[in-house]
Amino acid sequence: MLQTFAEVDSMTIILHIGVHKTGTSALQSFLHRNSALLADRGVIYKPTIPDWPNHNPLAMAFMPGSIDHGPTRLAMTLAEAENKTVLISSEMLCEPEVDFDLLLSCLKGHDVRVIAYVRHPSDIVVSAFNEVVRHHDRHWTRPLNEEPFAYDPSQLDLLRPWLKIPNITLAPYDRSQWVGGSIFSDFLAMIGVSGDSFDFSQTGGNESLSYPLIEALRHVNIACPSADQHRAILELLQTIKCGPGEYPLTRKNVRKCIKRMRLALPSYRPHFRSGFDEGYLLEPRHEPEGGWFSLRGSAIARATGFLVKAATFLFPALDAGLM
C-alpha cells in the first residue's frame, strides 16, 4: 500500500535545479553511473524511468497535462528511499510550467535543500545558441548576436521562484572555485558525500560545436531540414576537427550580458555559498582581433563548402533549399 506524505518520516530532500547550460546533463550522467555508490553512502539518486537515465522527469509530472500524477510519483519515490537522503536533479525544475507551489507543498515537513549553479552571463548566451541551433525541432536561424538571445544571460527569470526558499545555495559555475577542480567533485562536496571510488570520467554531456560549424548549421536551418536530415548533418559536423576559435559574442553584447548580471546580483548574493567569489560573473570577454564580422565571415567560409557538398551528396531536396 502506498504511503501518504503524512506517513513518511521526515527526510532530507536535495533538489538540484538544473539551470540550462551549467553542466546538468554531464552531472546527471555522473550521478547515474555512480548511483550504487551514492546509495551506499546514504543518498538515493533514481531516475523515474529507465529510458531516461541522465535525467529525472519527476518534475514533468507536476506540469499541466502530464499523464503522470506528480504527488503520487513523488510519494512513491520517497517511500522507496526508506528514509535515506533523496537527490532529485532536473532541468524541468526551472521551467515556469511546473506547479512549483504544489511540489513544495508535497515536501512540507521534510528538510528540503536546493542547489543551483550560476554561470558567466555571456557564456550562457554562446552555449545556449549552440544548443538551440543543434536542436532538430527548433530550426533556429537568428544569428548569435541578434536579440533576443536564446536564454536570459542572468538566468534570473528561471531562478527567481526558487529564491524565496531560505535553504537554497547558489554555487559558482567556475572551475577555479570548484572543489577538486571538477563539477562532479564539487557537487559531491555540496551534498556531503566523499568522492572516494567514484567514476569521474567525462561522459554524457551535451557536445557543442565550434562557432564556425554551428554558424554553418544555422544556415542549414534556413532550409528547414527534416529531423532526420538535421541529425545526419549534425553527426557529420561532429566528425570535423575544429578548434574553438575566438570568442564569438560582440563586445557590445558582452557588456549587455554583464549589465544584466549586475542587476541580478542583489537577488543572488544572499544565497551564494560560503566563499563564493562573484568576480568571474563580471569578467569581460574579448572580441576577435579583426572584429566580429570578420570572424563570422571566416566561419561561414570555412564550413559552407563542406556543407554544400554534404547536402548535395546526401540531401538533394535540402541542397535545393540552400541555393
Topology record:
Elements lengths: L11 E6 L6 H10 L1 H6 L2 E2 L25 H12 L3 E6 L9 H7 L4 E8 L2 H14 L21 H4 L8 E5 L10 H8 L20 H11 L5 H11 L13 H18 L23 H23 L1 H7 L1
Parallel strand pairs: 1-3, 1-4, 2-3, 4-5
Helix pairs in contact: 8-9, 8-11, 11-12
Structure described in brief:
By secondary structure, the protein is an alpha/beta fold. The chain has twelve helices and five strands. The chain folds into two domains: 8-119 and 155-205, Rossmann fold (3-Layer(aba) Sandwich); 121-152 and 210-263 and 279-323, no CATH class.
Mean pLDDT: 86
Largest beta-sheet details: 5 strands, parallel
Helix content: 40-55%
The overall number of domains is 2
Task: Just give the CATH class of the largest domain.
Answer: Alpha Beta
Architecture (CATH level 2) name of the largest domain:
3-Layer(aba) Sandwich
Structural summary, described in words:
With 323 residues, this protein is α/β, with parallel strands linked by helices. It contains twelve helices and five strands. It folds into two domains: 8-119 and 155-205, 3-Layer(aba) Sandwich (Rossmann fold), CATH 3.40.50; 121-152 and 210-263 and 279-323, no CATH class. It has helices spanning 24-33, 35-40, 70-81, 100-106, 121-134, 156-159, 183-190, 211-221, 227-237, 251-268, 292-314, 316-322; strands spanning 12-17, 43-44, 85-90, 111-118, 168-172. Helix 3 links the parallel strand 2 (43-44) and strand 3. The protein is globular, with a radius of gyration of 21 Å. Mean pLDDT is 86; it is low at 1-6.
